[in-house]
Amino acid sequence: MRDRSVLATALMVAAAALVVGCGGSSTNPPPFNTGTAVPTPTPTPAAPTPTPTPTPTPTPTPTPTPTPTPTPTPVPAPIGGSAVSISLTVAGSSAQFTVTENNYTGPLNASSGNCGGIATFSPASGTGPSATFTVTAVAAGSCTIVVSDNHGGSVGVNVTVTTTSGTISGVRRKPH
């Protein structure tokens, strides 16, 4: 009987092993094809990592070139003369005078509204900053020669011509 009992125990162990294997409590799949296909999931590709945009390097602001300060045009000095009066004593005699105006390169024009018959002058005009004029005596009298620039400046030169006339006698005076 002992053989029977060993056989019965072995059958029970085998049956138990069979039941446990079919009950799904095992972690191994059954060794045979069940006829149902189970798809293996395909991994979803990850979204591409965006390529970082490089931060632009700022362009340096150029240093502005300073604007040069314009050099002011010199303002002409007041017009003046070397003589404000000229005296001549003999008809035909002459004298010169010079008119100056610093920082001025324009015309210096001479005029004489009341010198006709008393004196003449030349040239009629000169160019600044300095011009020289010649006055020639004609007859006794006084007049003014005015020299002016082109922006309202002027200087007057007074001319006086004195002439004496007379005769020299060879007769002596008698004493009184």
With strands numbered from the N-terminus, the spatial order across the biggest sheet is 2-9-8-4-6
Mean pLDDT rating: 81
What best-fitting shape do the alpha-carbon axes yield? rod-shaped
CATH topology of the domain at 80-161: Immunoglobulin-like
Q: Can you offer a commentary on this structure?
A:
With 176 residues, the protein is of the alpha+beta class. The chain has a domain at 80-161: Sandwich (Immunoglobulin-like), CATH 2.60.40.10. 12% of the residues lie in helices and 28% in strands. The chain contains 1 helix and 9 strands. It has a 5-stranded mixed beta sheet with strand order 2-9-8-4-6, with no helix packed on it. A hairpin with a 5-residue loop joins strand 8 and strand 9. The longest helix is centred in the N-terminal third of the chain and has 21 residues, at 2-22. The chain starts with a helix and ends in a 15-residue tail after the last strand.
Main features:
176 residues, alpha+beta, Immunoglobulin-like, five-stranded mixed β-sheet, four-stranded antiparallel β-sheet, 28% strand
How do the helices and strands line up, and which of them pair or pack?
Elements: H1 2-22, E1 80-81, E2 85-88, E3 94-100, E4 107-111, E5 119-122, E6 125-127, E7 130-137, E8 141-148, E9 154-161
What's this entry about, in short?
The chain has 176 residues and is of the alpha+beta class. Helix content is 12%, strand content 28%.
